[in-house]
Design goal:
The chain has helices spanning about 25-50, 100-105, 115-125, 130-140, 145-165, 230-245, 260-265, 275-290, 295-310, 315-325, 330-345, 355-360, 365-380, 390-405, 405-420, and strands spanning about 5-10, 15, 60, 65-75, 80-90, 95-100, 180-190, 195-205, 215-220, 250-255, 270-275. By secondary structure, it is of the alpha+beta class. Strand 10 (about 250-255), helix 7 (about 260-265) and strand 11 form a beta-alpha-beta unit. Helix 8 runs antiparallel to helix 9 and helix 8 packs antiparallel against helix 11 (about 330-345). The chain is elongated and about 90 Å long.
Length: about 425
Amino acid sequence: MKAKLIETSDKELVLQVTVTLESGMLKTEESIQDSLNQAGCLATEIALSRFDTNGEPIMVNGLRYTTKGQIEKIYQTPYGEVKLPRHVYQGSRGGKTYCPLDRDARTIVYSTPKFAKSVSSKYASASSRTVHDDLKGNHGRYISRTHIKDIADAVGGIALDKEEKWSQAPPVSFGRVETIGFGLDGTCMFMSEDGWRQAMVGTIAYFDSEGERLNTIYLSAAPEYGKSRFLKKFEDEVARAKRNHPDSKFVGIADGARDNWKFLSKHTEVGILDFYHACEYVTKVADVAFRSKNKRAKWPAESRHRLKHDPRGAAELMREFGVFRDKCLSGQKREKIESSITYFANNIDKMKYHEYRAMNFPIGSGVTESACKVIVKQRMCNSGMKWKKQGAESVLCLRALNYSSGRWGQMWDKINRYGI
């Protein structure tokens, strides 16, 4: 053994660790890791045993439970497997058994909290194969891909089950919040039973008086018909943001999708059409209105400038679109310009970019567009991937927590405090 217990007390352990110095530095570092892993397993075994009972009867939900004896169980830890005997209890009528050590030590799928936290975070970012290879190659830990997924699914299930009760804390403190921007959008992922379906992403972005983004909270949900569960979760987060920052300005930022604005208009004082989506329609008009390549590049650049800085920029551009439409163009070209006119007409009340900029409001939904790629696409849409609803819900929840500043740590603090 490269690690042995020297002394123990109620407050600390003293271990002796022996490290073999190899001829090469890489091999020496691997030897150090192996020795420290053994020390970690030894310390974890002793630490876990402190959460076991002395075998006396206990009360569970008003019922008397007695021990069936100490039964050995293998626990997964950051340092290796630990085999530990612990008391397992059962009621006088039989039925489901109960292990106080698992409850009080906050184990998850027979993994210590630290290991469950690490594995679920890794799985939120990469496939079980990648996590398996990383743990084996870089940490000296072997764990099956199935167990990796089981741990991550369990942690995701806890997060989903507890989010309404545990999401009360505001984001990490960052000073005065002048504006809060709410955005939502959808992007497709492949579901094993339904094919390509739309997963949802929501963002709550906090801005200071200069318009600098201070922090962002992310939410995401697997595809669902009607989006009711996602919208309820997003609505709760919006209400929480308003309670925590009642003096801030609340703005909605999104593309022109009606479903988005049906939700956002109920919760915001100002609606802002994403500037860059509007610009796409300007370019679309230029592509059919001008034969000259130079004009197809120059006119959109000038138009985007007017749209952003001229108080009447949107109205003037819509009028110009009408002039182009009325020229002798083919029916297909007229339809493309007509669609741009319709888009501007439907959203012109949300295109006061000169005014928004003067108030240091955000005018782009880039944070939400980016979230669709980062939260959903990068993890859920790799080659050959298809998802079942429960697995998709779990991973998307874990990713949203990981990318939301402070949220991942808050959840684990509450697991440590309240259990699961």
